Amino acid sequence: MILHELIDYDLLRIIWWALLGVLLIGFALTDGFDMGVGALLPFVAKTDAERRVVINTVGPVWEGNQVWFILGGGAIFAAWPPLYAVSFSGFYLAMFIILAALIVRPVAFKFRSKRQNVRWRKSWDWALFAGGAVPALIFGVAVGNVLQGVPFELTPDLFARYEGAFYAKFAGLLNPFALLVGVMSLAMLVTHGAAWISFKAEGVVATRARSMGTISGLVTIGGYVLAGLWLAYGISGYALAENIVPDGPSNPLYSDVVRTSSWLSVYGERPWIALAPGLGLLGMIMVVLGLRAGREGSTLLWSKLGIFGAISSVGLTMFPFILPSSLDPRSSLTVWDSSSSHQTLFIMLVATLIFMPIILTYTAWVYRVLWGKVTEADVTDNHSAY
Amino acid sequence: MELDIVELSRLQFALTAMYHFLFVPLTLGLSIVIAIMETVYVMTRRPIWRQMTKFWGLLFGINFAIGVATGITMEFQFGMNWSYFSHYVGDIFGAPLALEGLMAFFLEATFVGLFFFGWDKLSRIGHLAVTWLVAIGSNFSALWILIANGWMQNPVGAVFNPDTMRMEMTSFFDVMFNPVAQAKFVHTVSAGYVTAAVFVLGVSAWYLLKGRHVELARRSITVAASFGLASALSVVILGDESGYSATLNQKMKLAAIEGMWESEPAPAAFTVFGVPDQEARETKYAVHIPYVMGLIGTRSLTTDIPGINDLLDVAQERVRSGIIAYDALMTIRKDRGNTSADVRATFEEHGNDLGYAFLLKRYVDDPRDASEAQIAQAANDTLPTVWPLFWSFRLMVALGFSFIAVMAYFFWRSSFRGQVYPRWALWGAVAVIPTPWIAAELGWFVAEYGRQPWTVDGVLPTALSVSHLSVQDLLLTLVGFIAFYTVLFIVEMGLMLKYIRKGPFEDVEETEKWMAKHQHQLRTHDGKGPFAPLSEEQLP
């Protein structure tokens, strides 16, 4: 097939780098509020009826939302196989914990209200809490580690090896900077969840969600600013040496990488990327104000923009790096040397262009059908409700 | 079996995949069954069909939750435990997985919520469309997963790139329309339909035995038996199609399944019974049916089927050829870009056997240093252990035929004997509920164990496919998965049984209102009115 020559390899790589961002952001925007709602569940809802209302605000949609995560995994596998191979095996135990949380969550949603038993329901409520809070924290920890570089190296056969084994490797992930990013990520998604609850629920539940969301919103802002300063002054960055071949073969070992004093030096070269952290901060501030003022729809929208800004600021700051290696910088994975082949990227792009609009259309339709507040009466009247 | 990284990774994959596949077949089949039931509801407006849709839909939902949850593990396990595999074939293998998300899973997961929550929010037709979209989504999902798996069995449309040290796609069309993948897809979804049919049949039979929910149970049996008979026939016929593709692509797997040590002149016989002896390289006490294997395997009476011993000789040739390819690859890598045309040509010629040189990496770091004994050993490794394959296959086939018998019987009773079923048959239907799961697991075992020692047939050995992990890493996650999955299994079985015991939610008022309104249209097949009590013989 020669069709794929229609789009240059380097352009395809940039497009897929952007799509990777779209998927991660899509995941954070949709499944993000599910996780936030899960993390807030024990605190904003006290009685069983209240808890069922909170659960049912996401009840019909969490399943579709979660596909963003699964699709994200599949898309990384298809478009960035080295990233998939290196990061998932490198963050091994962290991945396992995320998997455990994400396995518990669907089951908890489906099974919680199927028995009239206090202990049964309480246990599943904690499962929902862990299933929301733990992944939200770990995703942030992972981003914090990626920004510092991950201790791996590639052999000439491109087999990925890691420094340290087992828990030493896992303990290494839990460093102060990564934990800060983790807390910030958790706070951000909790705020997002709070905005969702105040949008979908009423009364005391919504009031509690707004006050918890205000606190977590402030933590988000503080965490984001602090992490930015830390990144500026305390963490060294990476840069590609001169020999960049943007349409060369996907072999990370073909390019040289040097360490720089800070990631943020790229803001001098490309000042426009400051828009991303700017939007992130603006969004986070507007959410806090919106929650205080009791605005519903616009608060949720600002929350989305805040998350969009925060996640894109990480991607844009690191560009063209995707997964830098602290152990052997030359092994670092970048946009130019860790993608799929020209043909695979092209085919996947065509498929995405066809199906993504369809997905967005029917997802929007489903949200429209389910539009409106969830009340205690809805939950008790519907036999299918969770 | 010593517990090294490779064995532990295999064990973990086998456990998590087989566990996942306890839930998948029921999802595949039940989604169609409830869509059929709801279609009848929309066409006839009879409330009983909506109750059936809701009741089986509830059981579908419990099963679906765990199917999805355990599927997440599968999507991420390749990167976690099979890092080199992911790097080496991700360019091809990743695409169907991503497409599964884009085309199928999104559809299924987005609409499944609406299936449960949308009864009052959608029109009848709207809800029916949602139900069908869930069914189509889950079946499409199987298509893409089997395209990925089919490629591991028969890696078409790809070529090795020395620059990137991996396989890269040359033809997406070939990958998608891989005959092995297509045969596996229809075989697998048919197996799922049989599973759902046996499940619905068994549960309904239990209701009839208890004299509960008789109307729902009898209608369900009719749906299950007709749907199940068609599916059971197709699972056997299309399974035969898989056998045919296997002979073209995986001769060793077929020979091992057959315990066929020596090549047989056409037409080969099928061994019904025997005791394969790996050491002596013979199958003892073999009972043959003449011609059958030749027909299944080659669709002719004149084509030979190669036996294990001949295939091992071929493998040894390919290991030697692979060493030449490996040597050329090392030169290409060293000279990067300035490789002489000679070396490139050598690589072109022998590149297809590169995977066979990798088989030597278990014994020696550089395949070029391999001794004669090591080459023979590597060639020998291309034969999986025969007896588990031999017996799993036979048990699976026997179960396959038993499904045809069961479904044909109930179809006959349902269509021509006034839906009256003897008690022994109903008890039988309850007793056989677990069998389709056993058959499905055996089928996967034959497919995947039979592919050993490769993860991608002839391309990448299993021993090389793993991640750089420690034994503790793998043990911890293995124990974690087992503990976790055991709890899930107990919880899910508990809920399933609870809801089966509880039975459908019957909206009596609505049913009676509807019946009164439509009484003039209603006559049961014996000519009596719909409210006439069941006669003695109709009662089970």
From TrEMBL, chain A:
Cell compartments where the protein resides: Cell membrane
Coiled-coil boundaries: none
Positions of transmembrane segments: 14-41, 83-105, 126-147, 177-199, 211-233, 272-293, 305-323, 343-367
Membrane topology type: Multi-pass membrane protein
Matches recorded under NCBIfam families: cydB
UniProt xrefs under PANTHER family: CYTOCHROME BD-I UBIQUINOL OXIDASE SUBUNIT 2, CYTOCHROME BD2 SUBUNIT II
Protein name: Cytochrome d ubiquinol oxidase subunit II
Source organism per UniProt: Iodidimonas muriae
Automatic annotation (TrEMBL), chain B:
Chief location category: membrane
UniProt keyword Repeat, yes or no: no
Transmembrane segments: 20-43, 55-72, 92-117, 129-152, 185-209, 221-239, 391-412, 424-447, 474-495
Protein's cellular compartments: Cell inner membrane
Keyword Transmembrane on entry: yes
Pfam families given in the database record: Cyt_bd_oxida_I (PF01654)
Alphabetical keyword list: Cell inner membrane, Cell membrane, Electron transport, Heme, Iron, Membrane, Metal-binding, Transmembrane, Transmembrane helix, Transport
Membrane topology value: Multi-pass membrane protein
Family of the protein in this entry: Belongs to the cytochrome ubiquinol oxidase subunit 1 family.
Protein name: Cytochrome bd oxidase subunit I
